[in-house]
C-alpha cells in the first residue's frame, strides 16, 4: 500500500461502502459483481470511472494509448 | 454484453454506461468522471506550470456534483461540468473527450482571493469598466407563437460598471430591445411588437448588480435584469475585470427564467 501514498489504505468492499464517496474503477465485466457487493446506502455518491470494454484491452504497448483509469 | 468492435467496446454506448450503473445501484447519486483520462496522466499532479488540469464530470444530482467539485478542486483539478449523467457518454471509449487532457490556463487575477475562494463585493478594486459590445453578447430564449423555442441575440447594448471606494459595484447597462435578432425579419418584427418585448413602450432594459463571485472560469457578476418592468436575477459569467473593458457574456441563469406570462402575454 505504501506505493499509493500515506493516505491510502486497503479495505473491504463493505468498508468502502461506508465512505461518502465511492469510486468505481473495476473492469466493465466486473461492474455488476462489484456493485452487488456494495451495501445499500441512500444518497451515496458513486464516481463511475469505468470504461465499457468487453474485455481488458491488450496491455504492454497500450499503456499510453488507452483510457486506463478503469483497468 | 458481447464485444461489437475490435476495440472491445461493449454495446451500451447509446444509453451511456453510467446510466446502466445507476440502475444497478439504487439510492446512489452517480457521477461519471476520470474514465476518459489515461492512467499516467491521471496519476500526475493536476497542478501544472501552465494551469490546472481539466476534469470533466457529469451527473444528475446537483448537491452531489457540488461536493464532488469541491473535493476535486481540492486535489488541484479544474472541474468542468458536462451536465446530466447522460452526457457522460461524451467521455466514453471513442467519445470526443477520450484522452482529452486539457489545461485551464491560469491567468493572474487582479483581485485578492478570500479563503473560501469567494470574492465579496468589498474586495473589488475601485475603478470603472466599460462593457465591451464586441466581445459581449446577450442571448435569450422565448417561446414564439406557442410552438417552438426561439433563440436570439440582442445586438445593441452599452454600459459600464463603476466600483466606488467602498468596493460596491454599480452597473448601468442599457440594452436596446429593438436590436433583437433571431435570424428572421418577420419574426423579429413580431418580437418587437406589444405582444412580446413591446419595444415602443419599453425600448431598453436595465441591469443592476447584486454581487460578484468567483468560479473556475473567472468572475461572475450577479444582478437583477429588468425587462418590461419585470425583474429577474441573472448572472454574467466570464467577466474579465483585468482591463479597461469588461468582457461578459450575458446569459440568464436559466433560459426559462424569462418565460413568464406577464412578460410576453
Can you give a write-up of this model?
The complex is a heterodimer of chains A (71) and B (265). The longest helix of chain A is centred in the middle third of the chain and has 6 residues, at 31-36. Helices cover 15% and strands 11% of the residues of chain A. Chain A contains 2 helices and 2 strands. With 265 residues, chain B is mostly beta strands. Chain B has 5 helices and 13 strands. Residues 1-8, 109-122 and 244-265 of chain B have low confidence and may be disordered. Chain B has helices at residues 17-24, 39-43, 62-75, 185-192, 261-264, and strands spanning 29-33, 51-59, 78-81, 103-105, 127-131, 137-144, 148-163, 169-181, 204-215, 218-227, 230-239, 245-246, 249-252. Chain B has 2 domains: 17-105, NAD(P)-binding Rossmann-like Domain (Rossmann fold, 3-Layer(aba) Sandwich), CATH 3.40.50.720; 121-264, Lipocalin (Beta Barrel), CATH 2.40.128.110. Chain B is globular, with a radius of gyration of 22 Å. Chain B is 15% helix and 38% strand. Classes of the chains: A alpha+beta (71), B mainly beta (265). Strand 2 (45-48) of chain A pairs parallel with strand 1 of chain B, so a sheet runs across the interface.
Please tell me the overall pLDDT of chain A: 75
- The total tally of domains of chain B equals 2
> Strand fraction band of chain A?
5-15%
The rounded distance between the terminal residues' Cα atoms of chain A is 18 Å
Order of helices and strands of chain B: HEHEHEEEEEEHEEEEEH
N-to-C SSE series of chain A? Answer: HEHE
Number of strands of chain B: 13
Q: How many DSSP E strands of chain A?
A: 2
Which segments of chain B are poorly predicted (pLDDT under 50) over 5 or more consecutive residues? 1-8, 109-122, 244-265
Q: Which residues of chain A form runs of ≥5 with pLDDT under 50?
A: 60-71
Based on the coordinates given, report the CATH architecture of the largest domain in chain B. Beta Barrel
Strand order of the largest sheet of chain B: 6-7-8-9-10-11-13
Specify the number of helices of chain A: 2
Radius of gyration of chain A: 14 Å
Which structural class fits the helix and strand makeup of chain A?
alpha+beta
